[in-house]
Automatic annotation (TrEMBL):
Residues that bind Zn(2+): C34, C222, H247, E251
Annotated organism of origin: Devosia chinhatensis
Main location: cytoplasm
Catalytic activity: tRNA(Cys) + L-cysteine + ATP = L-cysteinyl-tRNA(Cys) + AMP + diphosphate
PANTHER family: CYSTEINE--TRNA LIGASE, CYTOPLASMIC, CYSTEINYL-TRNA SYNTHETASE
Subcellular location: Cytoplasm
Family: Belongs to the class-I aminoacyl-tRNA synthetase family.
GO MF terms, alphabetically ordered: ATP binding; cysteine-tRNA ligase activity; zinc ion binding
Keyword Ligase: yes
Motif ('HIGH' region): 36-46
Gene name for this UniProt entry: cysS
Official protein name in the record: Cysteine--tRNA ligase
Length: 486
């Protein structure tokens, strides 16, 4: 395996171009991604963001070493939607206690759901409510620098104080409306000014502050938490495309003005939108699905979907492109995963052991002599090109079917780099059992006159070097023999 450190290139939303990634400090590469607002179960769009930045985390760990990468993904646990949910679900409890119940339950569910999608735990998962002091300190600095002002019981950011406000989104200041979670009010100096601190009523959660008992605005949370755990300027900030404006734009404004710095993060990365069966996901359309629903219920496509199938389906589209989440896509991902697992088990069986061999046996499969694993790393290094990476992994599976003793390790490790385990759910089911399962499935398809499925299974087995011979048994029933052809 090539041990040279691969060159990474990422598309930067701020510069609207792709450029080589050069960390500020190779011994401390820092990544921040916006996490969930924990008022309800996370939907599949949230799942896509979690998978994308988990993949980036894995790639950075591979290149720079796990001990040299810090990944922070916050948890927003103070929010007006959380307040409303707490009042709805726990009307008899004091609000602060009710809010804690809502956020503890939904945060735990989020962790369970994204773990099922193959996501590693970030190094740090700070809660907004545990960083109020840091938010207040940043607000105080903004007031002292003239970038914020008090009015009508609130503290607002003065957007006119930042001459280049709007660089990330490309919006002119005159075109921007308020980005904070408050209406445009007459007490604002400018319609684009947004809230840093707002007063709380006795029925709302709040913290004492120099500006009265209140709670933070949305944007100040991430600015304060990223500064606390990653520093005033760090390497990469990620999130969904919908967060570019106003959230990330306003994060940049707060952080740069508070610190007098040229940048909050050097690279900004955003994943594309997700729609379901060709339509925007919406509760009113009946196509709004949570990760939990897909994993545990039959609400989508009439069946449950394993986490690794959901992850692979997401990675089959480049992270910056929009994705159409369909039953057909999940079925395609499942078919690919089954084939990869068959290849893994064939390699394991060929080596006479319970696991695949080390990389020493990996051979070049790419035209330039790069090994399959190196080709996967290189594809991911090109702005997380998972489409090319998955193509290479499928080529590795074909190579395993042709020469199982040489490519098994590259296949398994390449899939693991994408966060996908090839160990079959029937943990030690060997290659022979998998083949016989496929032969039985084909026979069932033939008997039910599903000839397209029968042909697909035959082709799949033929690609693995398995020849089928149909015949009639003593009772005159259709039967099938198989043998390995090399």
């Amino acid at each position: 395996m090539n041990t040279a450190k691969p060159q990474l290139q990422f598309h930067n939303t701020l510069t609207r171009s792709k450029a080589p990634f050069v960390p500020m400090d190779e011994t401390n590469v820092r990544l921040y991604a916006c996490g969930p607002t924990v008022y309800d179960f996370a939907h599949i769009g949230n799942g896509r963001a979690a998978i994308v930045f988990d993949l980036l985390f894995r790639l950075l760990r591979h290149v720079y070493g796990a001990e040299h990468v810090t990944y922070v993904r916050n948890i927003t646990d103070v929010d007006d939607k959380i307040n409303a949910r707490a009042l709805r679900d726990y009307p008899d409890l004091p609000l602060n206690e009710a809010i804690r119940k809502v956020t503890e339950t939904t945060a735990a569910q989020y962790q369970k759901d994204v773990a099922a999608l193959g996501c590693l735990e970030p190094n740090i998962q700070p809660r907004a409510t545990e960083n109020i002091a840091e938010m207040q300190a940043m607000i105080a600095r903004l007031l002292a620098r003239g970038n914020a002002y008090e009015t009508n019981g609130e503290v607002l950011f003065r957007t006119r104080s930042m001459p280049d406000y709007g660089q990330l989104s490309g919006r002119n200041l005159e075109d921007n409306l308020a980005g904070a979670r408050i209406a445009v009010d007459a007490h604002k100096e400018d319609p684009a000014d947004f809230v840093l601190w707002k007063l709380s009523s006795p029925e709302e959660p709040g913290w004492d502050s120099p500006w009265g008992r209140g709670r933070p605005g949305w944007h100040i949370e991430c600015s304060a938490m990223s500064e606390r755990y990653l520093g005033q300027t760090f390497d990469i900030h990620g999130g969904g495309l919908d967060l570019i404006f106003p959230h990330h734009e306003n994060e940049i404004a707060q952080s740069r003005c508070a610190h007098g710095s040229h940048a909050m993060a050097n690279v900004w990365m955003h994943n594309g939108f997700l729609q379901v069966e060709g339509q925007k996901m919406s509760k009113s359309l009946g196509n709004f699905f949570t990760i939990h629903q897909l994993l545990e219920t039959t609400d989508f496509g009439g069946r449950k979907w394993p986490g690794e199938v959901l992850r692979l389906a997401m990675l089959m589209t480049h992270y910056r492109e929009p994705i159409d989440f369909t039953v057909k896509r999940l079925e395609e991902a499942e078919h690919i995963l089954i084939r990869l697992r068959r290849a893994r088990n064939m390699a394991m069986h060929a080596m006479g052991g319970e696991d695949v061999p080390p990389f020493a046996a990996d051979r070049p499969i790419a035209g330039d002599g790069a090994s399959g694993y190196d080709a996967v790393v290189r594809s991911l290094g090109e702005d997380l090109n998972t489409v090319a990476a998955i193509q290479t992994i499928q080529a590795l599976a074909t190579a395993v079917f042709e020469s199982p003793q040489n490519y098994g390790a590259a296949l398994v490790q390449s899939a693991l780099l994408l966060g996908i385990s090839l160990e079959h759910p029937k943990a030690r089911q060997d290659a022979k059992e998998l083949i016989e399962d496929s032969v039985a499935a084909r026979l069932a398809a033939l008997n039910s006159k599903n000839f397209a499925e029968a042909d697909r299974i035959r082709s799949d087995l033929a690609e693995q070097g398995i020849a089928l011979m149909d015949y009639k048994d003593e009772a005159g029933q259709r039967a099938t023999k198989w043998e390995v052809k090399r």
